[in-house]
Automatic annotation (TrEMBL), chain A:
The chain crosses the membrane at residues 20-50, 71-88, 108-127, 208-233. This is Amino acid ABC transporter permease. InterPro entries: AA_ABC_transptr_permease_3TM, ArtM/GltK/GlnP/TcyL/YhdX-like, MetI-like, MetI-like_sf. GO terms for biological process: amino acid transport. GO terms for molecular function: transmembrane transporter activity. Residues 29-230 form the ABC transmembrane type-1 domain. It is found in: Cell inner membrane; Cell membrane. PANTHER family: GLUTAMATE_ASPARTATE IMPORT PERMEASE PROTEIN GLTJ (PTHR30614:SF42), MEMBRANE COMPONENT OF AMINO ACID ABC TRANSPORTER (PTHR30614). It comes from Aquitalea palustris. Keywords: Cell membrane, Membrane, Transmembrane, Transmembrane helix, Transport.
Automatic annotation (TrEMBL), chain B:
Belongs to the binding-protein-dependent transport system permease family. HisMQ subfamily. Its main location: membrane. It is a multi-pass membrane protein. CDD domains: TM_PBP2. The keyword NADP does not apply. One of its GO terms (cellular component) is ATP-binding cassette (ABC) transporter complex. Part of the ABC transporter complex GltIJKL involved in glutamate and aspartate uptake. Probably responsible for the translocation of the substrate across the membrane. Residues 19-214 form the ABC transmembrane type-1 domain. It is found in: Cell inner membrane; Cell membrane. The keyword Lipid metabolism does not apply. The complex is composed of two ATP-binding proteins (GltL), two transmembrane proteins (GltJ and GltK) and a solute-binding protein (GltI). This is Glutamate/aspartate import permease protein GltK. GO terms for molecular function: transmembrane transporter activity.
């Protein structure tokens, strides 16, 4: 079988407008980043709240958070995405449903669905990390704060969370990388992110190896840069004298 | 929106076929992934610098790209590579290319678990095995790996549960697994929502049940 190698393919015209294939990859990467970052904001905010809830005294709030985590961790991501994209819009009040289906472009509606889906999906994982971080702290921290007259809210705000978040930066980094990788499911509901653009390039140009090699390279570099960034953050916020902070 | 779940009952045999394919893919991918992952872990831990570095690259490479990319890529590439090797055009189905993708991808994750498992066995064990005159192969097979696998069983199972959920990604290449069967059956009878929710519920019950079981196992295995 003859395969026509051509590493210059990325600079050739796609035959659509005046674009070259590289333009597709750049725009795909843009969507991937836009999905992942927006999803991450939701995941971090909601995940932190849930993580705190799991460690609170009482019965109701921890149970709610636990149920959330079990639900979102045990249903495949793709099923969740289909629910957000195909099912939830039908449950919305009519004006909102019409807006979602007709008022906005297909790319926007796919974008909104995948951001909500990834945000809520990743929140369950962030929650577990936050909970682990809080529980990893010595009990004395909590007791000392209460003894000093801090309210529960103040204890979390000034004593527990600032320490817990520092401990969990490494596992949070891996969740942060996961949300970038998981954003590739958006290609299955028609959002032209990096993977979808790669597939399209492979189909248009028949240069399958080149297209997927470039995509792999982009994901790889993206991963490395994010890891480097998070390592920098970890170093910046390190408390001298604590948890390897003497370095 | 009123939900009507009554149409699921006549569709159950078809859905069972889909689940069968999902489970077949899962079992084969786990077995293949654990075998390849163990070899990778042994390579990673070997004294041979080249071998160890190759294994490290392999793991880093597969852990930095999305599974969906691997599935889509292998779907196009596996038939091509096979035809280069065998010389003639052998059409392999989506199932084979997906299986290859899962095995190669999951091996990277399994190898990290196996590596940690091997490293958790004290050095005295391998020294004792050598002192008894065992070869490297014998020491690994008869002394180290049996202990390591016992320790890492909960983690391997946990990873398999994640893999069970991830098999739904074969939707991308049109393989009729459980999710895809549910989607198409739902479309045929015009009740896509009900079938989607049913599929989600089934995945939930299996994953949740399995992970509770693994948790119990973990407690029992704890030393």
């Amino acid at each position: 079988m003859n395969y026509h190698w051509d590493w210059g393919i990325f600079f050739k015209s796609t035959g659509v407008g005046s674009e070259i294939y590289l333009n597709w990859f750049v725009s795909g990467l843009g969507w991937t980043i836009a999905v992942a970052l927006a999803g991450w904001i939701i995941a971090l905010a909601l995940g932190s709240v849930l993580g705190v809830m799991r460690t609170l005294p009482g019965k109701l709030l921890p149970t709610i958070a636990t149920t959330y985590v079990e639900l979102f961790r045990n249903v495949p991501l793709l099923v969740q995405l289909f629910i957000w994209y195909f099912l939830v819009p039908d449950l919305l009040p009519t004006p909102l449903e019409m807006w979602f289906k007709q008022g906005i472009s297909p790319a926007t509606s796919a974008y909104l669905s995948v951001v909500v889906c990834l945000g809520l999906f990743t929140a369950a994982r962030v929650c577990e990390q936050v909970r682990t971080g809080i529980q990893a702290l010595p009990r004395g921290q909590n007791n000392a704060a209460l003894a000093m007259g801090f309210s529960t809210a103040q204890t979390y705000r000034f004593v527990l969370l600032p320490q817990a978040f520092r401990i969990i930066i490494p596992p949070l980094t891996s969740e942060f990388l996961n949300i970038f990788k998981n954003s590739s499911v958006a290609s299955l509901i028609g959002l032209m992110e990096l993977l979808a653009q790669t597939k399209q390039t492979a189909e248009f140009s028949a240069n399958i190896f080149e297209a997927f090699t470039l995509a792999t390279l982009i994901y790889f570099v993206l991963n490395m840069s994010l890891m480097g960034f998070m390592a920098w953050v970890e170093k910046r916020v390190r408390i001298p004298g604590m948890m390897g902070g003497s370095k | 929106m009123a939900l009507d779940f009554s149409q699921i009952i006549p569709a159950l045999p078809g859905l069972a076929d889909g689940m069968l394919l999902t489970l077949k893919l899962l079992v084969m991918a786990v077995l293949g992934g654990v075998v390849l992952g163990t070899l990778l872990a042994l390579a990673r831990l070997s004294d041979n610098v080249l071998l160890s570095r190759l294994a490290k690259w392999y793991v880093n490479y597969f852990r930095s790209i999305p599974l969906l990319l691997v599935i889509s890529w292998f779907y196009l590439v596996v038939p091509m590579v096979l035809s280069w090797i065998t010389g003639d055009l052998t059409p392999v189905g989506a199932f084979t290319s997906c299986l290859v993708a899962f095995v190669m991808f999951e091996a990277a994750y399994f190898s990290e678990i196996v590596r940690a498992g091997i490293q958790s066995i004290s050095r005295g064990q391998i020294n004792a095995a050598y002192a008894l005159g065992m070869s490297y192969g014998q020491a690994m097979r008869l002394v180290i790996l049996p202990q390591a696998f016992r320790k890492m069983m909960p983690l391997l199972l946990q990873q398999s549960i994640i893999l069970f959920q991830d098999t739904s990604l074969v939707y991308a290449v049109g393989l009729m697994d459980f999710l895809n069967t549910a989607r198409s059956k739902g479309d045929v009878v015009g009740l896509p929502h009900e079938f989607l929710l049913f599929a989600g519920a089934v995945y939930f019950v299996i994953s949740f049940g399995a992970s509770q079981w693994v948790k119990r196992l973990q407690k029992r295995f704890a030393v």
